[in-house]
Amino acid sequence: MKRTPGIRCLGLALVAAGLAVATGFAQPDPAAIIAAARAALGGDQILSNVKTFTVSGERARTLGGRPFTMMIEIACELPDKFVQEETSVGTFTSSNRFGFNGDDLISHTYSDIGPPITTSTGKETPEAIAARRKSSVNLRKLEFSKLMLALFAQGSSTYPIELGNVGDASLPAGAADAIEVKHDGRVILELYVDRATHLPVMISWVARAAVEFSSRDPIRPMSQTPDPVSPPTLPGTNPSTPQATQPPPGTVAMPSPPPLVNPTPAELEARAKLLSEQMKAIGSTLPLVEHRLMLLDVRDGDGLHWPHRFTEYVEGAVFEDVKLGKYKINARISAGRFKVSK
C-alpha cells in the first residue's frame, strides 16, 4: 500500500491492515522499526546514557506579515523537565519561557510593547485555573514528545505513547515506514522512518488552525527584519511565492485589540472577556490542517546522530524553521531554569 503522509489516511491504513491478513502478508512490526531507528540514532546504550541535554539556535517564522527570528535555548532533564526559552531583540524586545517540570507548568511572556494578549478574565475558580494549567502542561508534553521521537525514537514516561499500525509512505528522500503514535488510545501523530537510513525523517499530525491576532496598522514600524527563511522544498510548495502580506499557513487572522498603555485591571478584564467570547465563537469552526515536521541536517556528535534542523510545513507551506547548534550532553543544568509558574 502506498500511503500519502498524514493522519487523514489512517482509514486506508486500517483497510490495508485487513487486506494484509486476508492475503497472508504479515503486518510490519513497529517495534522492530523503532529498534532499527534507535540503532541509527546512536544505539540503546548511548541513548539511555543521555540524562540531560541543552542546545541553542534560532527559530524563524512569519508574524504579523513579517519574517521574524527569535534566538532559542532548549534545556531538558529526563524524564520530566523541559524548558524552551525564546528571545527577540530589535525595535522591541520580547521573551518567552515555556515547558514543564513534572506536572507543573513553566510559562512566562514578556514584551516591552505591552502585556500579552490573553483570554483569561482573572475571575476563574480554582478548579478552572487548575484545569487550564493541566491542559497547558499536556500541550507542552505533546510538543516534547515530538522532540523525543526525533532524538530518541521513543516517548517519555511523562507523556506515555504506544505504537499503532504501520503503512508505506513515499517521501522526497525515498521510501519510509509510517507508524501511528497513540496517547491514551488515540492517534496523535505519525512518525516516518526512512527505510534506507532507518532514521526518523518526518512527524505529521492534524490540528485545528491556529488563530493569529493581526492588525492592518503595526504598533510601531520595524526598521530591521531578518532575512526570509530559505527552507528545503517539498512537493506542492512554492518557495518563491511572497508570504510577507499573508498570515502564516494554517492560521486564521483575527484583528488585534488596540494596545493598552498602563492598563487598569478593569481594562485588562474587558479585553480578555471580549477575546474569550470571540475564541469560543470560532473554536469549533476552525478548519483542520495537516502539519509536517521535517527532521533535517543530521550530524554526528558524542556518538549520537541527531537532526539539527526542524522545518515545519502546514498544508504544504513553510510555517517555521528551527536551526540548532551543538547539543551539550549530560551537562549540569541549574534547577532555576525549570522554575514553575505561579
In CATH, the topology is named: outer membrane lipoprotein receptor (LolB), chain A
What is the CATH C level class, in words? Mainly Beta
Strands, total number: 16
Structurally, how many domains make up the residues? 1
Straight-line N-to-C gap: 50 Å
Structural classification: alpha+beta
Could you name the ranges where pLDDT drops below 50 across 5 or more consecutive residues?
7-24, 215-245
Secondary-structure element string: EHHHEEEEEHEEEEEEHEEEE
List the keywords.
342 residues; alpha+beta; outer membrane lipoprotein receptor (LolB), chain A; 14-stranded mixed β-sheet; two-stranded parallel ribbon; globular
Describe the structure.
By secondary structure, this protein is α+β, with helices and mostly antiparallel strands. The protein has one domain: outer membrane lipoprotein receptor (LolB), chain A (Clam), CATH 2.50.20. It is built from five helices and 16 strands. Strands 1, 2, 3, 4, 5, 6, 7, 8, 9, 10, 13, 14, 15 and 16 form a 14-stranded mixed sheet that branches. The longest helix has 27 residues, at 126-152. The protein is globular.
